[in-house]
Amino acid sequence: MKYKFLILLIILPLLLKAQTFRNYSNEFLNIGVDAAALGMSKAVVARTNNVNAIYWNPAGLVGIEDYQGSLMHASYFAGIANYNYAAFAMPIDRESALGFAIIRFGVDDILNTTELIDSQGNIDFNRISLFSAADYAFNVAYARNLIFKDLKFGVNAKIVRRIIGDFASSWGFGFDAGIQFERNNWYFGLMVRDITTTFNTWAINEDEFEKIRNAIPGQNQDLPETTEITKPKMQLGIAKDWRIGRFFNLQTEIDLNVRFEQTNDIYSSEFASIDPAIGFQLDYDRIVYLRLGVGNFQYITEFDNSKSLSTQPNFGLGFNYKGIQIDYALTNIGSVGNALFSNIFSVTFDYGFFRR
Asked: CB atoms < 10 A from the CB of 118, how many?
């Protein structure tokens, strides 16, 4: 299994050149989950080891010892969009684990004004209706130790469902895969999202489309493409744990997020772009957590065509008591970057505590 995974990583660049992809596809799956991870600017791929590893790196699921569950809610764009996540994971035996998760990102109660004006040119507000645009991802993850316990492998199969009211809907399917390696309190992780590409096929409601294709005189619209292929992405991380005194622990991690396209990232080429992320977590006796992170390093083009570097600082707090961990994250502190700040809450349950 591990040799097939390494071979796939080697031939990945060839696969990218051999197919046509959309640069931005299923972007809701790049937002991230778990307020603890988001407080560290998503720099967790090497160290994740609980139920939320289903998303960040399924290899980390081997670290769970009993049933675990997780819930998260976040609002974006002043509450216009809602992002929700739920997950469950369990060990199969000492060497392997299984997890399930669902993600929903949706904008509800959108005004449908396509029939606001009738055939005689009259405006009738009673003809306005509401619809929702929602994206769903259903994940099944499996992880196990390889050869020796310091090397872990995980894979995540996902089904993607996207719905835009009565206008269009799609189904998609793809895989993520990851590995983790630990040695002397150093942790290394590699996560490849959409490793086989994720293929979405769209069904367009042509009756609804006909209502809007002539909405602007002289600018008839053609039916959009019905297939969508998501490019693979990689996230590499290295982490180190530090013991500070008797009660304090410090976790540090640096990740490199790699997209196989030219973007505004701090390093960009025609082949790939790299965006680094740095995260810190300080805890007091595994009870209270303080988190800081910075990521999303982007070059912004100003009105005079000059370039400026934008970053996104994040902050987080956590509290763990009797198997229940509550986490909070504030992303983009002070609106320093070009992304809007968001308040994110999550809760994680560890059933193992109640068995003690």
From this structure: 10
